[in-house]
Amino acid sequence: MTQTRSKVTRRNFFKAGSIIVGGIAVASALTPFDGVLFATERPKGKGEWYGIGIDINKCIGCGKCANACKLENNVPKDPFYFRSWVEQYTIKNDGTILVESPNGGIDGFKQSVPDADIFKSFFVPKMCNHCAKSPCVQVCPVGATFETPEGIVLVDENYCIGCRYCVQACPYGCRFINPEKGTAEKCTLCIHRLEKGKNPACFEMCPTEARIYGDLNDPDSKINYFLKNHTCMVIKPNLNTGSKLFYNALSPEVR
Amino acid sequence: MPQHIKRLVSAFAVVIILFLVMQQVLTPASFGKLGHYRADAIPENEMKTLHYAGSAVCTNCHEEMQTDKALGFHAQLQCEACHGPGLKHALYADKFKDKELPDSLKLHKPDQRKDCALCHEINAARIKIVFDTINNTMIHQVNTLKHNPVNKRTNEKVICIDCHNPHQP
Amino acid sequence: MTQHLQHLYEVLSKVDGYVYPNEIELNWSILIVLYPYITGLVAGAFILASLERIFKLHVLRPTYGIALLTALSFMLVATMPLVSHLGKPFRAYEIMVTPHLSSAMAIFGFVYLWYLMVVLLLEIWFDYRCDMIIWAGETTGVKRFLYRAFSLWTTDISPKAVALDNKLGYIVTIIGVPSAFLLHGYVGFIFGSIKANPWWSTVLMPVIFLFSAIVSGIALVMLVYNVITRIRKVKIDMPCLDAIASYLFYILLIDFVLEGLDQIHRIYEAEESFDVLHNLVFGRLFFTMFIMQGLIGTVAPLLTLGTLQFYKPKEKIRKVIYMVIPALILVGIFFMRWNVVIGGQLFSKSFYGYTDFKIGLIGTEGYLMAAFWLIVPFAILSFLLWLFPPWKKKDEEHEVQNA
User: Fold this and answer.
1) CB distance B26–C153 less than 8 Å?
2) Residue C176 is inside which H or E element, if any?
3) CA-CA-CA-CA torsion for C96, C100, C105, C108, nearest 10 degrees?
């Protein structure tokens, strides 16, 4: 009796043992392929986790945000480099859509379609979506762009090789190569200001409080109040980038 | 194992070992601490210089402007939105109390029509919601090309602030 | 710097519709067109060589060594366009040191190394080791030293050792075929995995890249073989070229069908991006796509090679065809890469407009730089052919005697 039991347990031991060892071996052999799973995983922010809300109804297209961003972050002045910019969408009565963003909206907007032809018109401020499953982070070959534990997507300019793959991968056109540094550059949510308890420049300078940010994991935060009380949408939801930039009153024409 | 296969295997072994050693040597110290990146990159990003001070700082010296502004439509408008980044000014202007401020510390004085036009130029996308719920007003819109461009008596060009007080419009 | 900005202002004036402000600058230029092009030539040339070795298609024997050396010489420069276009070229090593496993580009570094070190170099080494030892005895000076060094100072040319070399070389070739597929499939994946870009993001991209790679590689070897026989003033092996031409035809056909499928699928589904891509193809890409890639690079060779399948003109005419058609195909595949890489950046990801593209003669992204990286592999190939002439191999001479 005891003999059979010990036999069984021994067999079980070997069985379990080999399963565990084999499992570990297979799992470790497959770890290099974990990279494939990047965008399949649910975002997993713990603690402070930033999200951004922009109210299109409140945006008056003054371009102060875009201007403040350039001045605060020493972004090159030429109209090819923007971390933050404003677009004017004009949908005409005949259904055609006109999008404009002269110098990112910094110098203001001139209405180019007569009132009579306009079906509707609105401004859309654009900036990095700080995606939770960011395509730019996914494709960076060296780990020079990454998401901080607080959910801010940053660039490590001392490590970036300037391959421009992230610029190609960003669906929102929020990245560019700094012509002097040769490395990728993007919105940092003014992490250098956040760290000193100040608001990011574009939020600080917005005259109508059209943009707010806050901790998505805090039920009482500004951003959660915003999300609760508005019908919000992200841009290009079909791409499943885990965008954390939520727009109120976003029209389907906006891309 | 034949001699030439041995040579080949050792050549490969040397290359692989060299590669692994180089990998160890060249990987930055803080790499991988928080994820697949240099953890030091976060403080490096945080150490960038600030340019905007925030209006709480402005009030320290320019309290009268603040009280002036609080009564008007521009109450919630940040000083630096029109005057430009002022952290340097806030930090060092004190030292020039009786002297003329150097240009690098002077703030922008927006006195052109185009400065006000940024927000107030008439535009179909701008008329949307009521901003000031107490006075029930929308953002004021003018056609800056047609709205009193010249003084009819003197024939001189007129700028917005000739008639409107920007701090209490 | 100012020149770069001047160029961008010029482009800005040619923007059609709306593009995101950061999209005015085209990020991947002619060097990134070259990169998949050169990698494709490598994979294709290698696959032609392995056809001979694995599938025992001995009619292809005269091109075997040439194909291998061509693959190697292009492989050695394959990453150079990529590295020289980097904003920080001296940080390129980071790709190997801290590869980000979710990035197709990072994994490419390892796929590349695997292919270069384990497949190409090993196969060539096993193939030439015995000959190198023999040649080392027949030569002097630098050449002798090179043979010695490349054979790792081994001396064993006993029949047993040579047989082992052959066997191991065969195994390497078998590993090599999926590796070559992987190599170029991977290059396709670098583009095909970018979900932000509807022109690139298709599951067929790796497959299309693979087949166009095989096509271009075979065409290149055909051309190189032609040139070499002319330089060596030996008789062209027509059965060999006829056979290559028929493989070329079938693979080109598959490639054509795959690309057709891709476009039909795109048109049938007509997703959000359809309008912008439609206007792109009939606008800014019309010349490179329909004329260069379609007519010159695909339709003309397909018709010519197709005709050869059931009608064989005189040898003299066939010789001309075998010179011209591979050249056309090489041009066509170059423009295929162009249409993918440049085409994918000409339209805005907002789908509301197009930016413009112009390359200068000089500069890191200019024509001269691109031409340089296309010429270097041929220089390397000449050197390799001088050092390792496949026609002087022992077994080769043996075979000639037998025949």
Assistant:
1) no
2) helix C159-192
3) 50
Rg over CA atoms, chain A: 24
Print pLDDT tens along chain C (403 aa): 688 888 899 999 999 999 999 999 999 999 999 999 999 999 999 999 988 888 888 899 899 999 999 999 999 999 999 998 999 999 999 999 999 989 988 888 888 888 888 889 999 999 999 999 999 989 888 999 999 999 999 988 889 999 999 999 999 999 988 888 888 888 999 999 999 999 999 999 999 999 999 999 999 999 999 999 999 999 999 999 999 999 999 999 999 999 999 999 999 999 999 999 999 999 999 999 999 999 999 999 999 999 999 888 999 999 999 999 999 999 999 999 999 999 999 999 999 999 998 887 777 778 898 999 999 999 999 999 999 999 888 765 544 444 3
Q: Is C156 in contact with B12 (Cβ distance < 8 A)?
A: no
Does A93 contact chain B (CB < 8 Å)? Answer: no
* Contact present, A171 and C195 (Cβ < 8 Å): yes
Rounded Cα gap, residues C208 and C185, in angstroms: 8
Backbone angles phi, psi at A168, to 5 degrees: -70, -35
Cβ separation C21–A79 shorter than 8 A: yes
Domain check: are B86 and B118 in the same one? no
Chain B residue closest to A89 (CA)?
B125
- Which of A168, A175, A238 is most worth mutating to test chain C (most C CB atoms within 10 A of its CB)? A168
Residue of chain B nearest A115, judged by CA positions: B124
In order, the DSSP letters of A110-159 are ---S-GGGEEEEEEEEEE----TT-HHHHH-SSS-EEE-TTS-EEE-TTT
Cα A99 from Cα C351, distance rounded (Å): 11
List beta partners, residue A232: A248
- Tokens standing for C130? 């015995």
User: How remote is the C-alpha of A226 from its chain's centroid?
Assistant: 18
Q: What chain B residue is nearest to C103 in terms of C-alpha separation?
A: B36
Residue B22 belongs to domain spanning: 3-46
Q: Give the helix/strand (H/E) hosting C107.
A: helix C104-113
Contacts of C196 in chain A (CB under 8 A): 135, 168-171, 239
Handedness of CA C39, C43, C48, C53 (dihedral sign): positive
CA distance B148 to C85: 55
Which sequence spans correspond to the domains of chain A?
Answer: 50-133+170-248
What backbone phi and psi angles, to 5 degrees, belong to A221? -75, 160
Task: Kindly determine whether residue A146 and residue B50, on different chains, have CB atoms separated by under 8 Å.
Answer: no
CATH class for the domain made up of A50-133+170-248:
alpha beta
| B104 lies within 8 A of chain A by CB | no
In whole angstroms, what is the distance from residue A16 CA to residue C136 CA? 58
| Nearest CB to B80; choose among A57, A205, A208 | A205
* B167 and B115 fall within a common domain: yes
Chain B interface, best mutation among A70, A86, A146, A178, by max B CB count within 10 A: A146
Cβ distance of B42 and A188 shorter than 8 Å: no
Question: Partners of A55 in the beta sheet?
Answer: A248
Q: Taking a contact as any Cβ pair under 8 Å apart, which residues of chain A between 111 and 140 contact chain B?
A: 111, 113, 115, 118, 121-123
Do B74 and B93 reside in the same domain of the chain?
yes
B69 in Cβ contact with B77 (< 8 Å): yes
Question: Are both B95 and B118 inside the same structural domain?
Answer: no
Q: What is the ipTM of this complex?
A: 0.91
Q: Where are the domains of chain C?
A: 27-102+197-341+359-402
- Picking from A32, A101, A168, the nearest residue to C21 by CB comes out as A101
Q: Which residues between 7 and 46 in chain A have a beta carbon less than 8 angstroms from any beta carbon of chain B?
A: none
CA B21 to chain CA mean position, Å:
45
Say whether B4 and C96 touch across the interface (CB within 8 A).
Answer: no
Question: Nearest to residue C352, comparing CAs of A83, A255, A210?
Answer: A255
